Automatic annotation (TrEMBL), chains A, B:
It comes from the Bacteria. This is PadR family transcriptional regulator. Residues 7-80 form the Transcription regulator PadR N-terminal domain. Transmembrane segments: none annotated. It comes from Saccharopolyspora halophila. SUPFAM superfamilies: Winged helix' DNA-binding domain.
Length: 184, 184
DNA sequence: GAACGATATGCAACACGTTGCATTGCAACC
DNA sequence: GGTTGCAATGCAACGTGTTGCATATCGTTC
């Protein structure tokens, strides 16, 4: 249900086609709410039916036609309503790395260390990306207000979480390696 | 697909019935992989069909009969295989709080602050819980080895992530409040 | 001119998670 | 004796996410 609200936010920032939205969900808002183009097209259809967005067909030079969507008044109202609504119990945690770690003694510990190292590197890379985006888009965070501030805070959340995963991976790899050396 | 591996881990730690597994998924392993009893019963059926687990019907005094499941050799082999397997691209991030924050200027900022405060409190509570569990189950973390170490590291991951969310919420609430005071 | 990649939209099938409901046995409480 | 509550198992329907495929235009490259 919530993807539709992510789309509303993105379309309120700027109207666009399904394809453009899919590009945005490959980065930017997509870092915090993943979605494929199939999901997006399917949702756009439902949202048109619900009257949350309107659609203009736009013919283009040198490119296939596209359908540009923008948020209707009903859609804007619905978005505002959802933003104010207390969220459902939330955070259904599902972390397969934790499951693997917990089951490490039923598998091969060396493989688990390798897997944690892979994840460590992925989180480090993602953190690097966020820091690059921060420097590029928000060089002076202290002065931000309004929509820019909100966007910055979302990015900050991403950094905090990646930092946490990174330390966790580092600590765990160290502990597993020590354990392999002494016990096992 | 991955729930079945979480169940395998849990059943290798100790054989049990569907109901008992559902209780375990209300805490312990469930903090890192959420699952309802319907999912669990459904998965157990599939896993029996696949030959990953075996089932004994156990009659009980003063209670309904139950079906106790244990991991078969095939199941153990499959679990070990999965643990060693590099995980799929992973972490499909979906954080509705980030979406709400990003859309704050299209809703009511005061409501967003209230919502972030609610989440802040939930994360603080969860962190408290993890710290209690740590003190209860792992009073001397430095000496842990093997399976206990693995369980501790999973808990540590939970704490790191909750700490991160907590600081993020605190920072964001502060920034949003300041922004409301000066600009807007 | 064939092949490839980007733009652009979409269907169908399947896997997985959620919600709501249903049933049985027994104990305890009022 | 009826209600409540825990133990225990399960079905059906629906919503959402994933995977694989299909199609069309246009520009560039081999």
């Amino acid at each position: 249900m919530s993807l539709e609200y992510a789309i509303l936010v993105s379309l309120r920032e700027r109207a666009g086609s399904g394809y453009e939205l899919a590009r945005r969900f490959d980065k930017s808002i997509g870092y915090f709410w993943a979605a494929s183009h199939q999901q997006i097209y399917r949702s756009l259809k439902r949202m048109v039916d619900a009257g949350w967005i309107d659609c203009d067909e736009v013919a283009q030079d040198k490119r296939p036609d596209k359908k540009v969507y923008r948020v209707s008044e009903d859609g804007a109202a619905e978005l505002a309503r959802w933003i104010g609504e207390p969220a459902t119990p939330s955070s259904t945690t599902r972390n397969d790395l934790s499951v693997k770690l917990r089951g490490a003694s039923f598998g091969n510990t060396a493989e688990v260390i390798a897997e944690m190292t892979r994840h460590r590197d992925m989180h480090a890379e993602r953190l690097e990306l966020y820091r690059t985006l921060e420097q590029r888009d928000f060089p002076v965070p202290a002065r931000l207000t309004g929509r820019e501030l909100h966007q910055y805070l979302v990015l900050l959340g991403g950094m905090r979480v990646e930092e946490a995963f990174l330390s966790w991976c580092d600590e765990s790899i160290k502990a597993l390696e020590n354990d392999g050396g002494e016990a096992s």
